[in-house]
Amino acid sequence: MSEARATIYTVARAAGVSAQTVSRVLNGTGQVSARTRAAVLAAIEAQGYRPNAVGRSLRASRTPMIGMLVADVGNPFYARLHRAIERRLAGSGYSLMLMNCDDDARIEHRQLELLRSYRPTGLVIVPSVGSSLTDARLQEFGHVVSVSRVLGGVHVPAVVTDEADAVAAAASELVAYGHTGIAVILGPREASTTRAREQGFRTAVDSHPQARGLVRYTDGTRQGAQEAAEALLRAHPEVTGVIGFNALVTEGIVSALLTAGRRCPEDVSVIGFTDAGWMTLHRPAISVIDQPVEEMGALAGRLLLDMAAGQSVDPGPHVVPSTLVRRGSVAPPSMTKERRA
Questions:
Q1: Which terminus of the chain is more solvent-facing, meaning fewer CB atoms within 10 Å of its CB: N or C?
Q2: Per the confidence metrics, is the pTM higher than 0.85?
Q3: Over pLDDT 70: what percentage of the chain?
């Protein structure tokens, strides 16, 4: 057969595979067994098929762009993360393409399909709740780093913070001030971040026999957190200390206190997770687990650049510690009785 008539489809028929499998062999993406790869290469030679991609390296066949898919573009955490990664990539020749999935696995799939068509050099991903991503799927995007959330069974470098230890420290802080009824209002139950923070909370509470801990799950939004906090305060008036899952959840908790006519910290002490500008404007300022967002973004960017340059990278996880910032929103629960006397 002449070279002019050879196509990817004639190669696929000759090798007894799909055209998609031939494409994977040509582009170096996805998982293909050694036997199948050999059959495809033999068919390419026999058919005289010579696409432009033959002989080009994987790196050369990709565009100088890094994709970034986040769970909720409305969360300030992701805006800070995007900026930090963009700064780290500055001057490298790579652009950063931001995409959002609204924490929906179906939207995540569609967005990744669109991103794949651009043949990016790499991907930064915050996996959605319920994500079904696999190693084979992620290989299609070149070099991949996950941030904040991790996926079980997926082997890519992950940049995270010490969530369990950080929330344990916050819970212990409330216990040290004399709080015995404490609660944590978390995000989606299935998220790895929720599981890690809940583990830290329960570990701290269990180590203090006098304390009782309550856990509530939300969608991670301000509105969801406000509704959960209002219900919690009505059902459990003994709760005098609350920890928030993220900046939006913390905002919802504070709003719930205002709606219920409860004062912070006189009636309820509050500790947030991930600092936000409004927290220092609140009176008193909100104590917070300061998540190192900028450091996490810079590290994710560096890992991608290293991998794109052919350097070996520790598969991780890469842990960047958080810090408990003490402000004025935590006080002994006895202040309530003293001020009302």
A1: C
A2: no
A3: 92
Q: Which of 237, 233, 292, 245 is nearest to 271 (CA)?
A: 245
The full set of domain ranges for the chain reads 3-47, 63-161+293-320, 163-291+324-340
The CATH class that applies to domain 163-291+324-340 reads: alpha beta
Phi, psi of 51, deg, nearest 5: -70, 160
Residue 51: pLDDT band (50, 70, 90) is: low
Question: Is-same-fold flag (63-161+293-320; 163-291+324-340)?
Answer: yes
Are 285 and 327 spatial neighbours (Cβ–Cβ below 8 Å)?
A: yes
Q: Give residue 255's Cα distance to chain centre.
A: 26
The size of the chain, in residues, is 341
